[in-house]
Write a structure and sequence with these properties.
The chain has 254 residues and is α/β, with parallel strands linked by helices. The chain is built from twelve helices and eight strands. It has a single domain, classed as TIM Barrel (Alpha-Beta Barrel), CATH 3.20.20. It binds phosphoenolpyruvate. Its main location: cytoplasm.
């Protein structure tokens, strides 16, 4: 079901102590200041801190735990890897898949991401599936083709029931960590396009029910304008998710 979601991707940042202090501040601020809206908050700390951070989240409320990646196999001789089932067993409900940093630095392609999606869904996790174009692609006027291919090859192999569990994040690569946010019109245009592609691949109901988040230098100053767009259902936040005041302000932007 379509929901407003703000997800914080902490990436490879924080120590256990930092993570515990950060989540404690976020929980207190959000509980004190966010009363009216039904926005869901997903926090995605590094693997070693999932359990500890999860224990600090109030039960049954708006807070949910997410991971930043998972392996495509359920278990086995894959030294150093973490399975979706392991994540689920420590309380994760979401997992980010297809983040551009995973695609770029770890060579994750659509075929591998398809397997990871299946593994996440089989373990009962909700994938936050990221798509987004490079600056070069945008300047060549190829954004729609590029996003459409990422969706088709990476995501649209899922059944209707599986797809129901998926959240999509549109993250233009040129906007991630650069301070260059997409304008609300640029975000809306691509979000509307993604919704149209979902309607074609599945049906109008699936398109209406899918939460599509914007990611890329979203912050306390621009979130309200971005979230006011009809097809923007929230944000996947990197840098600003590490600052409790900024993250809370973003959550308050609905
Ligand atoms: C991200 O990495 O998902 C992201 C959106 O980062 P930032 O907000 O720092 O641009």
């Amino acid at each position: 079901m379509r929901k407003n979601i703000v997800a914080g991707n902490w990436k490879m940042n924080t120590t256990l102590q930092d993570a515990q202090a950060l989540i404690s501040e976020i929980v207190h601020m959000v509980q004190d200041e966010v009363t009216g809206s039904a926005v869901e908050v997903v926090v995605c700390p590094p693997f070693p801190f999932l359990s500890a951070v999860g224990k600090q989240l109030p039960e049954g409320g708006r807070f949910h735990l997410g991971a930043q990646n998972c392996h495509q196999k359920e278990s086995g001789a894959f030294t150093g890897e973490v399975s979706a089932k392991m994540l689920q067993s420590v309380g994760a409900e979401y997992v980010i898949l297809g983040h551009s940093e995973r695609r770029q630095y770890f060579g994750e392609d659509d075929e591998l991401l398809s397997q990871k999606l299946k593994a996440a869904l089989a373990a009962g996790l909700k994938p936050i599936f990221c798509v987004g174009e490079t600056l070069e692609t945008r300047e060549a006027d190829e954004t729609f083709n590029y996003i459409s291919k990422q969706l088709k090859d990476g995501l649209f192999h899922l059944s209707n029931e599986e797809f129901d569990q998926v959240v999509i994040a549109y993250e233009p690569i040129w906007a991630i960590g650069t301070g260059k946010t997409a304008t609300s019109a640029q975000a809306q245009e691509v979000h509307a396009f993604i919704r149209e592609q979902i309607a074609r691949a599945y049906d109008a109901e699936a398109a209406l029910n899918t939460s599509i988040l914007y990611g890329g230098s979203a912050n306390a100053q621009n979130a309200r304008e971005l979230f006011s767009q009809p097809d923007v259902d929230g944000g996947l936040i990197g840098g600003a998710a590490l600052k409790s005041r900024d993250f809370t302000e973003i959550i308050k932007s609905f």
